[in-house]
Inverse folding.
């Protein structure tokens, strides 16, 4: 049986790292010799190194710590982790994910029974429970908001969609063949980029509803404007790299924020008015190019 390298890119993740690793070990359905854990620290000022050392001693596991020289983002951090990986398959997993059932055997079997599969992810249990989403070039005003509410009732279709980036298993050889994560995207939109490049190469991205995981995002109320700006930069980069139009995506953002702004005015939510005014301005700026 082939093993799995767990890749965890951290940025101020000392409150999450230990619990994630313990959930991996608790639901392990193969001997420990079939896994390794590689922690990339993109921050370097927390306790991640100390936590890794403790986990290694407490659980007698193959876990390593790598301090990144600089915070170059999610994709580059995971590419660095892959350069250290020794197994055939990799699990790219966010620190705020927890496993809730045994999983390794079924993932490896899925890969080995389907030679054309590049990536596998599962059903996300979270505030939004968004296990997959429509790629930016297929998002349209009004329809986007409706579809996002119904996404879990619609089957995953690789041609138009991408898997959530919180947890994805990769066949490393195939992943390298399509170029791994691009260095040009700092954060967000990596999943769409990988899904589209896999599609062009003829590889499959698979959604397995029986693979369950918990994503701890219940504390998130509103996306910070800085995060939205990083997202929009990534969407524009994704568009340029892949030769697709994201005009409809940007227009969707303008329309959606206008509706939210109007609602805030009507109900006199002063804080929301200011937020959605700035959000709308941000989308319009990117729409103008």
């Amino acid at each position: 049986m082939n093993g799995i390298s767990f890749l965890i890119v951290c940025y101020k993740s000392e409150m999450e790292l230990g619990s994630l690793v313990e959930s991996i070990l608790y639901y392990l359905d193969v001997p420990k010799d079939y896994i390794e854990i590689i922690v990339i620290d993109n921050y370097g000022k927390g306790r991640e190194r100390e936590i890794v050392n403790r986990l290694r001693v407490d659980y007698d596991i193959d876990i390593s710590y790598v301090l990144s020289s600089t915070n170059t983002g999610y994709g580059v951090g995971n590419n660095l982790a892959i350069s250290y990986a020794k197994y055939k398959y990799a699990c790219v997993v966010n620190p705020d994910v927890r496993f809730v059932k045994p999983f390794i055997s079924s993932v490896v079997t899925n890969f080995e029974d389907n030679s054309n599969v590049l990536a596998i992810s599962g059903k996300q249990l979270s505030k939004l429970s968004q296990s997959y989403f429509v790629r930016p070039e297929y998002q349209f005003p009004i329809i986007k908001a409706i579809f996002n509410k119904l996404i879990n009732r619609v089957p995953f279709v690789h041609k138009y969609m991408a898997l959530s980036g919180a947890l994805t298993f990769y066949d490393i050889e195939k992943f390298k063949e399509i170029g791994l994560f691009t260095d040009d995207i700092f954060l967000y939109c990596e999943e769409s980029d990988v899904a589209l490049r896999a599609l062009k190469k003829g590889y499959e991205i698979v959604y397995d509803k029986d693979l369950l995981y918990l994503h701890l995002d219940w504390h998130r109320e509103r996306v910070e404007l800085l995060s939205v700006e990083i997202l929009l930069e990534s969407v524009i980069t994704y568009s340029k790299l892949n030769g697709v139009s994201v005009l409809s995506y940007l227009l969707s953002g303008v329309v959606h924020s206008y509706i939210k702004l109007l609602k805030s005015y009507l109900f006199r939510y002063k804080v929301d008015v200011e937020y959605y005014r700035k959000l709308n301005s941000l989308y319009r700026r990117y729409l103008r190019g």
